[in-house]
UniProtKB/TrEMBL annotation:
Residue ranges of every copy of the Recombinase domain listed in the record: 5-51
Keyword DNA-binding: yes
Oxidoreductase keyword on record: no
Annotated GO MF terms: DNA binding; DNA strand exchange activity
Protein name: Recombinase domain-containing protein
Length: 254
């Protein structure tokens, strides 16, 4: 009967043959004669270790823009591969064609990078302009804060005035100064005024100056685009394009 490699491996590494029993990770001396000497056993372990072939780890291909684009013709994913030519090895991106027939051709990575950097340059903001615009945003933020405070105080005063008028109206009706018909008309007007003021207050608290931070973030993002336009960190370029781009399609190598 032939022995498989796994069985031979277990036999050659089993310390039982040198009179040692291993139980729960702990070694015990056996009550029987060893079959082989410890020196022979250890020599065998060394040979097995030297001959053992390390498992090859799966090589990861360096394709930074995989997952960024989809085919503009058929909608399939864009994949990548290496190709040799003109005395060198190049990375190419192409449609997987997994959704059916597609006429789109390969695009070399350096040409793709050039196009992405050109797009980044169109939205890029230099450092001087970034600083100036951020200073202006700070000014607008302070002005908005002062204006908001004034607006809020004005609303509070009007709401208090309306409450006072309602109290006076009720007292006048109870004292018989005005009849019920006039009372109901005036009360309806004051309630409507109060409701409108409460709605304005709610809208103000909800909206506030929430346009400031998005504008500030946009300025910083545009300046980051200026840096990436001259960067060779393709993975960072990919990450940036994923954040700002929505319709990322590759059609006719563009």
């Amino acid at each position: 009967t032939k022995l498989c490699k796994a069985t031979l491996q277990r036999m050659l590494t089993n310390p039982l043959y040198i009179g040692v029993i291993v139980h729960n990770g702990e070694a015990y001396e056996g009550k029987f004669e060893p079959i082989v000497s410890r020196a022979t056993f250890e020599a065998a372990q060394k040979v097995l270790k030297d001959r053992a072939k390390p498992r090859k780890s799966k090589k990861r291909h360096n394709f930074p823009f995989v997952g960024l684009l989809r085919c503009g013709e058929c909608g399939a994913a864009i994949t990548a591969q290496y190709a040799h030519g003109n005395g060198g090895t190049y990375r190419y991106y192409r449609c997987t064609k997994r959704l059916g027939s597609c006429s789109q051709r390969y695009l070399r990575e350096d040409l793709l990078v050039a196009q992405l950097k050109e797009r980044l340059q169109k939205v890029a903001l230099c450092e001087d302009w970034e600083e100036k615009m951020l200073v202006q945003v700070d000014i607008w933020e302070n002005e908005q804060a002062q204006s908001s405070q004034s607006f809020a105080q004005n609303l509070e005063e009007k709401m208090k005035e309306t409450e006072v008028k309602l109290d006076r109206l009720v007292n006048a009706f109870l004292d018989g100064v005005i009849d019920k018909e006039v009372y109901l008309v005036k009360k309806d007007q004051l309630i409507k005024t109060k409701t409108d003021l409460l709605q304005k207050k709610s809208d103000f608290e909800r909206k506030g100056n929430n346009w400031i931070e998005p504008l500030r973030d946009w300025i910083k993002t545009a300046h980051h685009a200026e840096k990436l336009a001259s960067s060779e960190d393709f993975y960072e370029i990919k990450s940036f394009v994923e954040k700002i781009g929505t319709n990322r399609r590759l059609l006719d190598r563009k």
